[in-house]
Amino acid sequence: MAKVLVLGAGISGHTAVSYLRRYLGKEHEVVMVSPNSNFQWVPSNIWVGVGLMKPDQVKFALAPVYKKIGVTYKQALAISLHPEGNKDSDTPYVTIKYVAGEEEGKEDTVTYDYLVNATGPKLNFSATEGLGPDKFTNSVCTYDHADHAWGNLEKALKKMENGEKQTFLIGTGHPLATCQGAAFEYVLNIAFEVGKRKLSHLADIWWISNEYELGDFGMGGAYVKRNGYITPTKIFTESILKESGIRWIKRAGVYKVEEGKAYYENLRGEKHTKEFDFAMLIPGFSGSGMKAFAKDGSDISDKVFAANTMMKVDADYTPKPYEEWSAADWPETYQSPVFDTMYAAGIAFAPPHTMSKPMQSPNGTKIFPTPPRTGMPSGVIGKIVAQNITHRIKTGKNDNPHRASMAKMGAACIVSAGYGLFKGQAAVMTVKPIVQDWEKYPKWGRSINDTVGVVGTAGHWMKLFMHYMFLYKAKLKPLWWLIPE
Ligand SMILES: Cc1cc2nc3c(=O)[nH]c(=O)nc-3n(C[C@H](O)[C@H](O)[C@H](O)COP(=O)(O)OP(=O)(O)OC[C@H]3O[C@@H](n4cnc5c(N)ncnc54)[C@H](O)[C@@H]3O)c2cc1C
Question: Closest residue (by CA) to atom 23 of ligand 1?
């Protein structure tokens, strides 16, 4: 009998646990440790943030689903990893702290044969002074944050209905923030909602970003095929913002926020401020902050995690200049190089480097996007990690036949504004591969036939369809496994 422990019931960890339970017989135990009692379909938080969906529409309780499929669920936070066991036993284990129920606040240990770290990003608001929903800016990163943002947005819209002008500032809230796609979708949704209420003349909407050029999206930008011609995402993105009446500030590293005022440095080293009535700025991301310890109790976090506390996997982390980066640097199995029964899936794995060119101001401030790991790759990685662990348990072999490099797989990004069958519009971008491969595709960095940009209502339908389809899949309803990640 084997015991597989998964940390984090987000898109990646929930996918991993679902496939593990499907592939492994009942003689094997599958355990999930995650602090939030709900699964949330994060992409739809954008609609919560503009009041078009309620939090209940984007989440569901995990306990009944895990009970149905036979996963042991502990509502707790993982605190430390002990992959060599301790002085009394060689069995690896994780220390956890319960966050709810009768055992709330109590610490416990959970042993494992295989471990999947899928703890996602820590929303690191504290890395930027004054940032975050309990300070001066809003967030749409969780359903609670998005609901709170809608409360504030609604107030701003009411003021406009009473004839008061409002300035909106949406974008990245840290010089190295990622997830530009989510913020971009939110700014378009705000412009759509303002327009729908015929209040555009009272709205001054700004996009602020750490990207060198708009449309970088942390992927180093892309060339996309659009209506038969090829265009850089810079033009594609600027056109969409311009058509929506949104102005922009680029190459900006926000380092401080006060009530109604954001402070930023640009790549020329100049310091500026931007005033706002409503701001939604994405924080920097780091790993969950777990520590790792050796058998003798010494701290081995440096061996297991990268500096940002994301977990090191089978990537090439050798420091090298931008010009020498290669698609082969990116991981394929997400197995820890130091402890072969440990894997990291989704945002929890440490990328080898960024995809965007690193840039810094004359003051030495690094201002560029870190790499995004969107829902689709996070789900795919969760699945192949489950397949490899299953393979190892069932065959006794120690290889990982299932692979999923972000430098090989494609992804689709749908930026949808509005809601309903006839009222929405979306910009759809597909890229393949996600990480540029200049050796294989010397002209465009990606397969130009698979890297496409389209604007229209069809993409919006797709996003709406995906909302229902992925929640159906995550609830593990009949034949869920036929729906791709
Ligand atoms: C507003 C928004 C919109 C987005 N829209 C899109 C989109 O349209 N398309 C797309 O592809 N991607 C989108 N993304 C990105 C997508 O949501 C992420 O790629 C995805 O959620 C990453 O999955 P994950 O499992 O790695 O992390 P998460 O989904 O964040 O899950 C991590 C889980 O780990 C848990 N956890 C944290 N710490 C611990 C701990 N110490 N112990 C145990 N558990 C822990 C968390 O509670 C959470 O349940 C969006 C992101 C945001 C914020």
Answer: 11
